[in-house]
Amino acid sequence: MESKSFKVIIVGGSIAGLSLALMLERNGIDFVVLESYKSIAPQVGASIGVLSNGLRILDQIDCCQPVVDAAEYPVDKVYYRDSRGKLIWSLEDYDEDITERHGYPAVFLDRRMLIGILYNKIEDKSRVLMSQRVHTIENSGSSVTVHTSTGQKFTGSIVVGADGIHSTVRQEMWKEAQRLDPKWIDPSEKSALPATYACIFGISEGEKGAEKGTLTSVVNEHFSYLIPSGPGKRTYWFLVHNMGKTFYGEDIPRFSKEEEEALAKEHWDDQLTPTLRFSDLYKSKIASVYTTLPEYVYRRWHFQRIMTIGDASHKFEPLTGQGGNNAIETSASLTNHLVAALKGCKTGSLSTEEISKIFQSVQDHREERVSGLIKASHTRQRLDCMETPLLKFLANFVLPYVPRSILMARWIHTYSPGVSLNMLPMPHKPRDVAYFDERFRVPFSRGIIGVLLYVSFGFLAWAANRQLWTAGKVNGTWTMVREAIIAKSIPLPGRVEVPLRQVYTGLRPIDRILQSLVTVFLPAVAGTSNPGQALQSLYFLACILPIIAILTVEGYRPRNRWTLLASPALWGVLYQLRGIALIAPLYFATSLFHSSSVGYFTPKSRTVPVSMAQALLPALVLGFVLPTTMMFFPLQDTLTTRQVFIALWQPAPIYVAILTEVVSRAIAWFNRPAPVKPGSQVGSIVRDDLPYLRTAYAAVGGISACFHFALMLSWVVSGSDFIIRALVPLNSFGEKSNLADGIFIFFQSDFLLVALATMLWCLASIWDMYRVGISNVSWKAGLFGLVLGCILIGPGATAAAVWYWREDILSHTSFGQHPSASA
């Protein structure tokens, strides 16, 4: 796209300014950069961390590899140390983890090195002018003019201030706003900029420095250190301290070199690592600066044809390294909006009103993200400085035990929402986590829908308790069960009473529980007053089979480790004792709670060990299908043996859990595969378990569907009211004449409510994947599919089908098409 009639005046040859210039040049938009320094990249003692969200944009403008090469050593180890240099917490293999998940490493280099790389990539360097300090800016109806201290003037379509926290462009913008629209800028903004911390940051060079590829944080009370290693023999360092109070606006102090040296002497003997003191770094420094650390997001980034970006609009503390990276992001956002507007403009020029809309769109796009990251940076700085007794306790005693998974989830919220250039190709970088602009839509929270889902599962649990236990008490079922246990005989319709077996395990407490369960199950299995009861019982258990499979798989997910979902056997025991219709909604609500964040829906957190996936189907067959078959197997002798089979069936969920673990370990031991090489995992190992999981889902879904077909066939043969008689609990609270009828009502209620809860859980899962942008199946389409599935193949097979589809969706690393994919 060529747009020579539209010209951008960029004030400041900073990271924001030069990255914007490079983006504009790639899109054929005219520009000029006005830099106040005599050279483009002076050494001011600053280093910069370039992270995944920044490198991704730099990759689009061919700057990523030069930056990585210049840095030499990507961050591979992250250390947290106490005031004595003792290790509190560490993260090994950081480079492999961050690159695998987000496609790019984290690197540190001199700020001037990054600026030099950006400058060298600009083809027409005549557009970058030195020694051009801005003096005044004038808006006119169709253009804007910048006057510099050299007496030169530059006229363009817009002015972009990339000139830092003490931005002259912002001052001039405020003056223009005061003259033309006094209400545009809040007068309090001039004194709103806060600074609580100050920092000596520097670059040291020598043999004694940080270990290469490391990033070390040293926590202390009211001060802290950040020490990244640099290229060659360089070490970067930041000594941050609390100034004792928060200063605002013009009251923010500026420090002399003497004050810097005095502060350095105070910390001369600080132990940073077991072998490194602060004095070692300060004595070998080649550059250093002592400055305050303002942190703020300005309420207005623009006025008419003037806009500020980077530190001039959103200023970060340096601790999290997001200042420069978000400056690049805002430059990309401005480029995206500007290019889109110019493409739709036939004349090549934009009115002041149109430009104002573009600028406001950029601020709307960026403001929430930078505000959140700045708050996160401030919170992290307070933690590192242990500003309160609570923060001191957290730093010393909680931080060492924070699971790695929590940190990785935070990475997603830090990096994945990052901006990219819509119009430039996105280089292929294998990664585990899709960026938000690569998804079908930007993820959003559940909001009120989440609350309604929790309420719905709570209501279903309450309804189950009422239908299973309250109704059974009212209609006399539990009285008859109690009487049968006391009488040691079970009354069956049309038969003499069957003696209740007293011993199953020899352990009296367990035998008592089994006696109760056998009393409940025997009428459903062997003695019925309703010809549909046996088929209903088999159908019910066949529908439970896929649920057991799903709960078992969820128990092995990395994302569910150390949660209540990690123990399917526990849930199995609970629903065998209290009814699955009561326990399943509680499980589903727990699952809902743990799956609220975007980080839950990543390919690596989805995977289960391949050996577990291989073991799942045999465990289900041996642990559930076989005991169920034995329980219903036609026997010629008395019902005593069937009671044994019923008792043997009761721990079926535990059998499945134990067999899955045992068979999985056996398979893993026999196979013992060679370790996967770093970098080859994404797109391969995240899908290695899929064939086995699909087979298991297809098998259990097929079994469940077969019983659904049998039920439908019985309906056709038996008449129009068969389904109602077999599945619908009529008159649950009416007095029952015999135990079999009461138990039949119990199992009907149990089945209907668990089926409803399972379908709601499936619908929530479908919507969740739509919500986080990894699926285009809306809740309406999902609801239609679930209803159709329940009619055609039954609820159990439908749940298996949903999880079959869900596994494949969750294993993908990209879903939507990046806007530049067709470029």
Automatic annotation (TrEMBL):
Its main location: membrane. The keyword Ligase does not apply. The lineage of its organism: Eukaryota, Fungi, Dikarya, Ascomycota, Pezizomycotina. InterPro entries: FAD-bd (IPR002938), FAD/NAD-bd_sf (IPR036188), FAD_mOase_fung (IPR050562). It comes from the Eukaryota. It is found in: Membrane. The chain crosses the membrane at residues 447-464, 538-556, 568-588, 608-633, 645-670, 696-718, 739-761, 781-805. Residues 7-345 form the FAD-binding domain. One of its GO terms (cellular component) is membrane. Keywords: FAD, Flavoprotein, Membrane, Oxidoreductase, Transmembrane, Transmembrane helix. GO terms for molecular function: FAD binding; monooxygenase activity. Gene3D superfamilies: FAD/NAD(P)-binding domain. This is FAD-binding domain-containing protein. Belongs to the paxM FAD-dependent monooxygenase family.
